[in-house]
């Protein structure tokens, strides 16, 4: 039966050549024994029943960015507003910012963030390749990882459409986004608090200066 379908056709459901009233699954090489009671348009790609969706790469893509986000909580952001207004040294206004940029937590958070970004592009490529090897037709393209977290979301949506399973990564992505928003809110609150203290110090310094 395999000679009745184009050899280059991607895996998916197609009208059964021997019975146009049903659809049969083409695995990319030959027809399988899996049939569907109704005709399925060729554009609606479906994976063979039981096709896997889980890979270690998608979990690395989702979870690794949490590390630099958590490290940012230990960055001494208040140093950026730690000015000595009574000092005659004109560089005193810059020492706090310099201390912030040279702090181990800041350097580690930024450098690790870029390393993880690069690794996740590679992990997305591996995830895409493994999904195809497992029989998922036309997975979400790995290049979308450059716009993270677009890849993890799109990948999950496409996998669910193709296999009917694989919602767990989408739920975890949502959780990490909420966690990132919470971390961002904490940092914004800290920065605004330190800015308020700085403004108070400026007013006090101006009122006591001759």
Query: What low-confidence regions span 5 or more consecutive residues with pLDDT below 50?
Result: 1-6
Number of strands: 3
Strand content: 5-15%
User: Count the helices. How many?
Assistant: 6
What radius of gyration results from the CA coordinates? 27 Å
The percentage helix is 40-55%
Which H/E pattern describes the elements?
A: EEEHHHHHH
| Whole-number total of structural domains | 2
- The mean pLDDT is 81
Main sheet record: 3 strands, antiparallel
Going by helix content, strand content and strand pairing, the class is mainly alpha
Termini separation comes to 97 Å
CA-based shape: elongated
Strand order of the largest sheet: 1-2-3
Model description:
Keywords: Membrane, Transmembrane, Transmembrane helix. Pfam families: DUF2510 (PF10708). The chain crosses the membrane at residues 57-77, 98-122, 142-160, 167-192. Residues 11-37 form the DUF2510 domain. This is DUF2510 domain-containing protein. The structure is a single chain. With 210 residues, this protein is mostly helical. The chain has two domains: 2-36, no CATH class; 56-208, no CATH class. Helices cover 52% and strands 9% of the residues. It has helices spanning 56-63, 66-71, 92-101, 104-134, 150-163, 168-208, and strands at residues 12-16, 19-26, 31-36. The chain has a three-stranded antiparallel sheet with strand order 1-2-3, with no helix packed on it. A hairpin with a 4-residue loop joins strand 2 and strand 3 (31-36). The protein is elongated and about 90 Å long. Residues 1-6 have low confidence and may be disordered.
